[in-house]
Write a structure and sequence with these properties.
This protein is mainly alpha-helical. The protein has seven helices and eight strands; from the N terminus they run ββαβββαββαβαααα. The longest helix has 27 residues, at 178-204.
């Protein structure tokens, strides 16, 4: 942002929220891991908090639009910061449920165990304590954190953004919706899992 206008350079900032899709190494893989452990039976909170997610292709598309706008000296996009999402905030657990459904591990609402905030925080404190004890004897890089207080707060907090500026100044409109984006992301994840399994089996043989 500070470089905008320096020696003819025109810049702007793209601020995407919770990127997911093909190549995702955090959001979708994390939800799949939870599913594989059978932990998708548990829901933290009443699912009223809204979250904004952004398909990776829409993020790339916004960068192209921004680059095109910055070439034009008359464009007001220069020096601006743009929030970027799919423009469809949804309850966090609704998004997670769609991921698990596409992954083939649908969990009916009637079978879910809903944990209150206080109960979740107690479990998180125990989990963090166990992790800290293990870290005293094992390299942290080889350990995986379980439920943490920060993750609970994130899952129970609303976090969505106004993208009207991106629509107005960049002519941005999401090209891929949430459900299609989840299908595309899961399809790639499943192919990756199959490839890893085949490679492992081949190495074993």
């Amino acid at each position: 942002m500070a470089a905008n206008g320096e020696k003819g350079l025109r810049t702007c900032t793209i601020r995407p929220s919770a990127i997911f899709g093909p190549g995702d190494r955090q959001l979708l893989p994390g939800m799949i891991e939870v599913c594989e452990k059978g932990q998708h039976r548990f829901q933290i909170g009443d699912n009223t908090s809204l979250m904004d997610f952004t398909y990776v292709g829409n993020v790339a598309y916004a960068h192209v639009l921004a680059a095109e706008k910055l070439v034009d000296p008359s464009s007001p996009a220069a020096g601006q910061a743009f929030n970027l999402t799919n423009g469809t905030p949804v309850p966090f657990w609704d998004f997670a449920s769609k991921v698990w459904y596409e992954y083939g591990k649908h969990m009916p609402k009637r079978n879910k165990i809903i944990l209150s905030y206080n109960a979740s925080m107690v479990i998180a404190c125990i989990s963090e304590t166990i992790f800290s004890i293990k870290a005293m004897f094992v390299d942290k890089s080889k350990l995986k954190e379980g439920m943490t207080r920060s993750r609970i707060k994130q899952a129970m907090s609303s976090r969505y953004f106004n993208i009207s500026k991106a629509k107005k100044l960049l002519d941005y409109e999401p090209q891929i919706g949430l459900e299609e984006g989840i299908r595309l992301g899961i399809a790639v994840s499943l192919k990756w899992i199959v490839c890893v399994c085949l490679f492992s089996a081949d190495a074993f043989l």
